[in-house]
Amino acid sequence: MNLEQLDLALKAETKQEAANKAEGDYDTLPIVPDSSTLDALRHEHGSLLELVNNADGAVVSKQDRYKSVPFHSHDWLELAYMYSGSCTITFENSAVTLHKGDCILINSYVSHSNSCCGEDDILINFLISRKYLNANFFNRFSDASYISSYFISTLQNDHRVNDYILFNSADSRRLPIFINEYLIEFYNKGIYSKDFLDSYITLIFLELADIYKSQGREETKANDIIYILRYLEENYNSCTLDSTAKFFHMNPNYLSGYIKKNTGKNFKQLIQEHRLSQASRLLLNTNLSITAIANEVGYDNVTFFYKKFRESFGCSPAEYRNI
Which long-range CB contacts under 8 A does 247-253 form with residues at least 24 apart? Predict the structure, then answer.
């Protein structure tokens, strides 16, 4: 299958869509979200719940056109990608309209409904079990930034932080490439498909994490911690708790507690981790002296840098460079 064949396959009218067109859309959606309506959402090979829970990765489900999807919720994460056209997803207290190239990640147990998709509206849903994410997935983000780490912790949290995360991904160069390749491999499985699909889904989430990091306040459901973490990433080698609190017009004690509450780590731990992480990169990828690297990442006291580096990595900077 190539890209042209994929496009034709996604836009071809299925038997269910033909039946939907003949029957017409629901007159109204349920006013009260009801997770039991999930029972009405069937797949040709069985229930979506059974499919997702038994899958080794993501299950792809194209939304059937010509009929809206009533309010429902589920225990998997749903990554919805607007392949073409548009669709509105309604939550209990808000609604989001996706246009071509947009992506939204809906957290577990969040009630939502989807508007009726017309002929040109192709909405692709990646249904991902929490079992897959916890067991196989997040270790691939071993070098994640603060933003990516927060993004990941949001998804892993049983007590959801966000109902959804909206990504303004329409201008992304890489995302449609990764998604198209995933879809082609998913629909045409071969001997190495599992490895390809795992790699593609990792690339998809890495690209989303990068988009998530750069988008603005009005474009995300995330709270202020994202902007604080971004500030720390950009100023880790020089900022202090007081200077950061001043920048965000916060009391230092309040800021310290706010960071701890949202990340599980205090200000010093975050700064230390980022400085040492950057130092490790410089050790492996530059010829700078250890003293120069210590100064570059914000340590004036080189002896203290050596101590903290050994505590974190179990060896000296020189030994780490020669590994």
Answer: 248/224
